[in-house]
Write a structure and sequence with these properties.
This protein has 692 residues and is α+β, with helices and mostly antiparallel strands. Helix content is 12%, strand content 30%. Bound molecules: calcium ion.
């Protein structure tokens, strides 16, 4: 056994104490799920052990509930006082009886649908709510923070966090501490300036805002919270970065640490993506792609660690953050841990920002040549990776190694369970390039870098167990997923949605698969567990949303227990996607014009990662056969309620017809040369990167 034994005893004690402290059910002994990450350290670990690696085969459905909203589901539920709450696409909030599944109420914040096309890089989803002061509090896709009475669903207050007209959005879950609610924003694929804000739980009044990148230095510091730190950050930038905002959005990883009274959060990429274009001549560009800690009460800067200086790879650093007390040598360290897209697993002292270790968790990285341990493990950047400067483009390893999907840490095994991917990304700078649809990222996505593409050892997606003390892979499970959240329990289990529309459990110590069940949908968000009246339940959301197909089928909250006997109704037969384009029409010039217009206006929703949200693959749309219908959708906004707004401000009827000619030619090409295999799947190549 490893050196962890001493730490285990300490940590297990802390975790158990924390769990009982949050037990808030109807009965003494109920253990619920009152914050996004479960216990106060946000480990997504539960002390519940009624369900074990030995009896998990007896898990069956206790109840399920259908959720109508179409789109990507990323929400971790909350369970408080016998009620289970979940957010849904378009930021709707549902409340169900946690024992029976009876819907108690629903709150629809009426987010304007057109922002899907104008202000959002990736998804109309929501990753969850927070609970405090008898209220459920969550962010909306159009930049509001809403609090409702947890019992009745009646609105208590609503505050504006950010302006969607300036292309901010909220998909992440708020966190709670010191009577405040902490909320971040998305939008670093547009010209935004990132920040984290704190609001009063009782009133909804904003208490502080911490900007993650400096503004125009000629306008002075940005408020008391940032007085001293923004000039320091500004020294790491060049040119007029503020004209394009700078980026550094705070779209997912946030944790409030009660032991240090700090809010620790991750920041996203800079904008535009190539460092040379946003900060000509270099500079690290603080605080993009960093972990930042601020004092919870005031928002005053405490420490930062920049994981990827000059980030030009959309690495973000917004992956989930997990606190733990772990034994390193003869010391017990209170640490924050993260495994972001850049492929490095970080263990950092929570109180100070001192890096204890930084190790690649995928086999090979090439954006950094190593770490300068004398300077708090600052990465030594590969000069070839600065593709905006070299003009050659760059194949980067890894690509999107772990994005937002929930990780979990089990104090009993000492392991962190991370959904991971091995792949290679490519970047080529193009000033003014908006190749990712509406996103202003200034890269030519389809332009290959110079030189050979590097090979990836055993590519694909999998479930990774990482040992943060031994600093090594404990096990990898290829039947696991690189795109689904994890939950771990004292029953020696890790739960995760896996490819093939299944929900599975693995032994936490060895990774052995011990259970799987058909869900009829894709299980992507983090599962949760709770105990009421002595019965342990496991809850997770499954979604009809898939890649490369319009969303058909049900979205559901699924709740399991031992010997649960409820059956899902038979799944409707899949609706086959039939390639049925009309004959090609138009000449080469028309196709080229249509392709350019499509690339600029449509691809952001209908290509790559956005299709995982259920935006249709236009190769298959029946509208290709109906010019009037196609024009009425594109120009007149016939499907505006679905988020497909009218493009009349940028496209006329002739433009729509040019796009239809390109799509028709492409669909006929696909019909003549069908792909041999689809993307993703167990052991297969990873699906196209979903840039967040
Ligand atoms: Ca990003």
């Amino acid at each position: 056994m490893r050196r962890l034994i001493f730490g285990l005893m300490v940590v297990a004690g802390v975790a158990a104490c924390s769990q009982s402290a949050v037990a808030a059910g109807d009965n003494p002994g109920d253990v619920e799920w009152t914050r996004n990450g479960g216990n106060p350290d946000e480990q997504r670990y539960s002390t519940l052990n009624q369900v074990t690696a030995g009896n998990v085969g007896q898990l069956g459905l206790a109840w399920y509930a259908d959720i109508p909203e179409r789109g990507g589901y990323q929400s971790t539920p909350l369970v408080i006082d016998g009620v289970i709450y979940m957010t849904a696409p378009w930021s709707s909030l549902y409340a169900f009886d946690a024992r029976s599944g009876k819907q108690l109420w629903k709150f629809d914040p009426q987010a304007p649908r057109e922002i899907a096309a104008t202000s959002i890089c990736c998804n109309i989803s929501n990753r969850g709510a927070a609970y405090a002061d008898g209220k459920i509090i969550w962010g909306t896709i159009d930049g509001r923070l809403i609090a409702v009475d947890a019992k009745t669903g009646k609105k208590a207050w609503e505050s504006r966090v950010a302006d969607p007209k300036r292309q901010y959005s909220i998909t992440g879950a708020p966190r709670i501490g010191d009577g405040l609610v902490f909320i971040g924003v998305g939008g670093a694929e547009f010209y935004t300036r990132g920040f984290l804000s704190a609001f009063d739980v009782k009133t909804g009044k904003r208490v502080w805002r911490f900007y993650t990148v400096p503004g125009d230095p000629s306008k002075g510091p940005d408020g008391a919270a940032s007085d001293n730190v923004m000039p320091m950050a500004a020294k790491t930038w060049n040119g007029k970065w503020w004209e394009k905002g700078g980026g550094g959005s705070t779209w997912d990883g946030i944790v409030y640490d009660p032991k240090t009274d700090l809010v620790i959060f991750g920041t996203g990429n800079g904008i535009p993506w190539p460092a040379q274009l946003r900060s000509p001549g270099g500079g690290d560009n603080l605080f993009i792609s960093s972990i930042v800690a601020v004092h919870a009460k005031t928002g005053k800067y405490k420490w930062h660690y920049q994981a990827t200086p000059m980030d030009g790879f959309d690495f973000d650093n917004t992956a989930p953050l997990t606190l733990a007390d772990i034994a390193i040598g003869d010391r017990t360290e209170h640490v924050v841990m993260q495994a972001p897209k850049n492929g490095v697993f970080y263990v950092i002292e929570a109180a100070t920002g001192k890096v204890l270790s930084a190790d690649p968790y995928v086999p090979k990285i090439n954006w950094a040549l190593g770490f300068d341990k004398e300077h708090n493990w600052k990465p030594i950047l590969n000069p070839e990776a600065n593709y905006g400067k070299t003009g050659k483009g760059f194949y980067v390893l890894p690509s999107q190694a772990h994005v937002w999907h929930s990780q979990s840490f089990n104090p009993q095994t000492g392991l962190m369970y991370v959904p991971a991917r091995r792949g290679v990304g490519s970047f080529y700078a193009e000033k003014g390039g908006r190749i990712l649809g509406n996103q202003m990222v200034d890269v030519a996505m389809g332009h290959p870098p110079e030189g050979p593409k590097p090979q990836v050892e055993n590519p694909g997606a999998y479930l990774l167990a990482w040992d943060p003390v031994e600093r090594r892979v404990a096990w990898e499970q290829r039947e696991g997923s690189g795109s689904a959240g994890t939950l771990t329990t004292a029953g020696n289990l890790v739960f995760q949605g896996v490819p093939g529309k299944k929900f599975a459990a693995f032994r936490a110590d060895t990774g052995e698969k011990v259970w799987a069940v058909d869900t009829q949908g894709n299980v992507v968000p983090g599962p949760v567990t709770y105990s009421i009246d002595g019965v342990q339940y496991i809850a997770v959301i499954s979604s009809a949303s898939t890649g490369f197909a319009a969303a058909a089928g049900k979205n559901r909250l699924l709740v399991y227990k031992l010997k649960g006997a409820v059956q899902l109704p038979p799944a409707p037969p899949p609706v086959p996607q039939v390639l049925n384009p009309p004959p090609d029409f138009g000449d080469t010039a028309m196709h080229a014009r249509g392709q350019d217009l499509y690339q600029r206006n449509c691809s952001g929703c209908h290509e790559g990662g956005r299709m995982f949200s259920g935006f249709p693959d236009l190769n298959y749309t029946v509208a290709l056969n109906a010019p009037d219908l196609f024009k009425s959708i594109v120009v007149d906004g016939a499907l505006a309620e679905n988020g497909m707004i009218s493009f009349k401000n940028s496209l006329n009827a002739n433009d729509a017809e040019a796009i239809r000619s390109f799509l028709t030619a492409r669909a006929n090409q696909l019909k003549r040369n069908p792909p041999k295999f689809g993307p993703g799947g167990p052991g297969g190549p990873p699906p196209p990167a979903a840039h967040q």
